[in-house]
Design goal:
Helix content of chain A: over 70%
Number of helices of chain A: 9
Number of strands of chain A: 0
GO biological process, one term (chains B, C): glycerol catabolic process
Strand order of the largest sheet of chain B: 1-2-4-3-5-6
CATH architecture of chain A: Alpha Horseshoe
Order of helices and strands of chain A: HHHHHHHHH
Strand content of chain B: 15-25%
Shape of chain A: globular
Bound molecules: adenosine-5'-diphosphate, magnesium ion
Largest sheet of chain A: none
Structural class of chain B: alpha/beta
CATH class of the largest domain in chain B: Alpha Beta
CATH architecture of the largest domain in chain B: 3-Layer(aba) Sandwich
Order of helices and strands of chain B: HEEEEHEHEHHEEEHEHEEHEE
Protein name (chains B, C): phosphoenolpyruvate--glycerone phosphotransferase
Number of helices of chain B: 8
Keywords (chains B, C): Glycerol metabolism, Kinase, Transferase
Distance between the termini of chain B: 39 Å
Number of domains of chain B: 2
Number of domains of chain A: 1
Distance between the termini of chain A: 13 Å
Shape of chain B: globular
Structural class of chain A: mainly alpha
Number of strands of chain B: 14
EC number (chains B, C): 2.7.1.121
CATH superfamily of the largest domain in chain B: Dihydroxyacetone kinase, domain 1
CATH topology of the largest domain in chain B: Rossmann fold
Strand content of chain A: under 5%
Helix content of chain B: 25-40%
Oligomer: heterotetramer
Pfam family, one (chains B, C): Dak1
């Protein structure tokens, strides 16, 4: 992955989040406070603006900047979580304008670790983690099986989408949805849904 | 959605500008960094209190900035916690060298953003103590949840800890009394309707004409369950049962009671509710030392109300009575 | 209809009981005669102020009883003026021998009931002066109407005349400054939704999702006309046009501004509105000496707001700033 | 009219007002503040209770007491207006347990005069007066034409009802409805409607 592709990914994520903003907000109205689409949209629009203004010349720096921008602009639960994930991803990457597939996989692992550390969510808690974990597993499995970035990203996107769908049956144990108790069952998690959009964006730009 | 706004995206910034214009002598509003501070901050040697959270809960928190209460407040977007940059900027702006207390309501977003801000402040050499408010006993099982939410007790924590800071309390003391107030508090809320966020443009949930949400928070999220509407006296009794079970009050204990409207409930109803509360507490031998009735910790235009009961010491009552001069709460000054 | 009440017929009495329980030290509530009085009334030699009107406008008037404002308030049924017996009982209870000022909002029912009460009080040897409040400039043609309604300016009249009485003003003086404040005031209101009276059980009118009522009063009555909802800045400009046309303010004049919510409008929106008001008044060279933003003269749970602009003298500002200690308005005490 | 008939009239009025309370309130919601039915109901129920508690033994005293009760219990515009009307009616009657038809007509005239004096309404202003005035004209005309109380009351009831209906076309100039300007046109006046109910009650009990 080079700087241009990383930028394309984040642009595509911004586009997807904007296009699906209403849906994310609707999902969040059902079991949260109805702002997830607005939050993600505000954040990714700011990321694109920040990167356009002063494009970093290293992939790692680009993700660190993107993460920092999310932290500075989003607020709520999703801002620090996605922001920390992207910062950790960026920090884990080796310097330079291009990174290998294995390094990217490691970076994504660091990103998930940051989410887990900050939010303390386990798989099954009905959060971002429930799309991110299976996506990363599929990504790593594809890489281990010899896939290229396009193949790994496609596998990750599929797994993330399945993971997001699977949250419908879960009772939330983290975030606002947890206050609803059993009433959180039967609704897809907004954060897991936005995670699936982001992995789909990666698949789209690499396909 | 019908609201007195211009572009939904500008609501928070424009309301902030209005707040600044309305309180030119008492408040200093930094519109670009998005925080509200006491005009006389920083005060050298005084412990500063900073709070914040999503907008839409007014007068909380911006309306509680002033002498005897908060030194600064950071309003996020509607129902969205503020960002670390904002909190850091406010923390630096009001630090008088004696440290800063962050009053944080226990929501995932608030906790994380304040935590990141506290780390950044520590990096800059500012001593920060965090007081987490989690009084909402409608959230029952903490292993299955993000823990109890912070709601009405936030006002009491900010008032009482704010008074302690005003009279010269040290960082650890101010934080300690804030935590004691939180520990001694329990709240429970009902919603009759959902509020409408300007960005979403429609109510957070729909309720049939004869149903209410039981155990709601202050972000338009649905509650634990739906029930048929019942007379106020029954709702009050159920809420006080939950409150007094979670935080027992013994015969002869003194309490401060907050009957709080969620934004769309007329004062007429809130006073009626207070009458029921007074009756039930009297039956149980609880002495109400002080009480406050009004819309203080709101959820936009939600028709709803919350009850908060805080078991107080004489010291807490003394601090409650101390002068306060803010847009939203004022006495003795 | 969903409200925190028991039987709709008992709302006013039960809310009154709650008010009494909530302010045991400051207020004395006569539940059978249905009035709210200062605990320290009557005060010998002090001119007393009595007001009243339908319930549903809280904190007006009961919330404005206390040091520096009203001596007593008579709440009628919801949106129904009080009866002469009540007004007479309150008048007698607070008369300290120096006479009583009745502050009456200009509605047919209020005017007639207060007039009957004043006649009865005169029969008992109590000197009564009536200050009629009629500030609502949405009512245009007074030969075709019962005259302008009394709305937001009532708060200013009660505060300023109340301060004059508190400092020892004579009956004629207290009434005179009350009338001057009224003459110097103009108000205009918009409604986004109707309020629901407990007895009727349904909103007073239905409004489509994109329409507002222009020029409403505070009783859920429809306004002069319907319009499409417009951005807050345009609504503010139109309202101020009407206000300043009816009561011109010259370059350099000082005013007090009240941005008043009608009960269901979040403070967030009211502050945004104040920001727009400040901008427009600054453009026109009007100096805002003081301002108040909040839900003070309400119409149950109506989503709506009114603007009141009062051209003030230095003397009025001094009286506005004087200490006031009531449930609904408090400073300096 | 004797004491028993006067009492029956007020009882029948109370019954009519109770039965039509919702309609009166609905009419008042359209051009007023939605309390006229509740107000009238509260007032007439109190009148019946007061008269039951200590029944006066003179017709005039009975109406004075009824009027005083309305003034003490109703509030709003209708309380003082109807209360003053009944008080004036009672005061205008000669003493004793029974009054002549001509005296009653004179008393009703005094009642209307009290409404006019207190409220200042002219015919056409869309108020109580627009039912009361034609009712009284019809009553007096019938009496002049030799009708008995039943006949005069029937004529008055018909005229009151017509008068109330005619208020629909009027633009209000008094009371809350006047604030609506032209929007008050097209709705029947609540107060004129309750006046028609009261005259109909008189026709019913004398028929
Ligand atoms: N502790 C957590 N760990 C991981 N993800 C979380 C956690 N808490 C919440 N989330 C995610 O955040 C999403 C909500 O984000 P958002 O609506 O933007 O923030 P907020 O809940 O503060 O309004 C949830 O759908 C969930 O996926
Ligand atoms: N000045 C007046 N003269 C005669 N009748 C009046 C006058 N003002 C109002 N009314 C009558 O009073 C009726 C309203 O009574 P009600 O709803 O009980 O009182 P309110 O208007 O105070 O709520 C109107 O429909 C009208 O017929
Ligand atoms: Mg959310
Ligand atoms: Mg949120
Ligand atoms: Mg009325
Ligand atoms: Mg009415």
């Amino acid at each position: 992955m080079d700087v241009a592709l990383a930028l394309a990914w984040l642009r595509a994520s911004a586009g997807a989040v904007a296009a699906e903003s209403d849906r994310l907000t609707r999902l969040d109205s059902a079991i949260g406070d109805g702002d997830h689409g607005v939050n993600m949209n505000r954040g990714f629009a700011a990321v694109v603006a920040a990167l356009d203004a002063t494009p970093p010349d290293a992939v790692g720096a680009l993700f660190v900047k993107a993460g920092g921008t999310l932290i500075s602009k989003v607020g709520g639960a999703s801002g620090p979580l996605y922001g920390s994930a992207l910062r950790a991803l960026g920090k884990a990457l080796p310097p330079g304008p291009e990174v290998e597939l294995a390094a990217l996989a490691g970076g994504l692992e660091a990103g998930l670790e940051a989410v887990r550390k900050l939010g303390g969510a386990e798989p099954g808690d009905k959060t971002i983690v429930d799309a991110y974990r299976p996506a990363l597993d599929a990504f790593e499995e594809a890489v281990a099986g010899g896939a290229d970035l396009a193949g790994a990203a496609a596998a990750a996107a599929r797994a993330a989408d399945e993971g997001a769908r699977a949250t419908t049956a879960m009772q939330a144990r983290k975030g606002r949805a947890s206050y609803l108790g059993e009433r959180s069952i039967g609704h897809q998690d907004p954060g897991a849904t936005s995670t699936a959009l982001i992995f789909k964006a990666l698949a789209d730009v690499t396909a | 959605m019908k609201k007195f706004i211009n572009d939904p995206a500008d609501v928070v910034a424009e309301a902030l500008a209005g707040l600044a214009a309305a309180h030119p002598d008492d408040l200093r509003v930094d519109v670009s960094e998005q925080y509200i501070a006491r005009a006389d901050a920083p005060r050298g040697g005084k412990v500063a209190l900073v709070s914040g959270g999503g907008s839409g809960h007014e007068p909380l928190h911006g309306g509680f900035v002033g002498t005897g209460m908060l030194d600064a407040a950071c309003p996020g977007e509607v129902f969205t916690s503020p960002v670390p940059d904002q909190i850091l900027a406010a923390t630096k702006a009001v630090d008088g060298g004696a440290g800063v207390v962050h009053v944080v309501k226990n929501y995932t977003g608030d906790v994380m953003n304040f935590q990141l801000a506290a780390e950044l402040a520590a990096d800059e050499g500012i001593a920060v103590e965090t007081v987490l408010v989690d009084d909402d006993v409608a959230v029952e099982n903490s292993t299955w949840t993000a823990g109890r939410r912070g709601t009405g007790a936030t006002l009491l924590v900010e008032k009482i800890a704010g008074a302690r800071a005003e009279e010269g309390g040290k960082l650890a003391e101010v934080a300690a009394i804030g935590r004691e107030v939180n520990t001694a508090s329990a709240s429970f809320a009902y919603a009759l309707t959902a509020g409408t966020t300007p960005a979403a443009g429609r109510p957070g949930f729909d309720l049939p004409e004869d149903e209410i949400e039981v155990g709601v928070g202050i972000h338009g999220e649905p509650g634990r369950r739906r029930e048929k509407l019942r007379p106020a006296r029954e709702l009050v009794r159920s809420a006080l049962d939950a409150i007094l079970e979670a935080k027992p009050v013994n015969d002869g204990d003194q309490v401060i009671v907050l009957v709080n409207g969620l934004g769309g409930t007329p004062l007429l109803e809130l006073y009626l509710v207070y009458g029921e509360v007074a009756t039930v507490l009297a039956e149980r031998g609880v002495r109400v030392a002080r009480r406050l009735v009004g819309n203080y910790v709101t959820s936009l235009d939600m028709a709803g109300m919350s009850l908060t009961v805080t078991r107080v010491t004489d010291e807490m009552i003394r601090l409650w009575d101390a002068p306060v001069r803010t847009p939203g709460l004022r006495w003795g000054a």
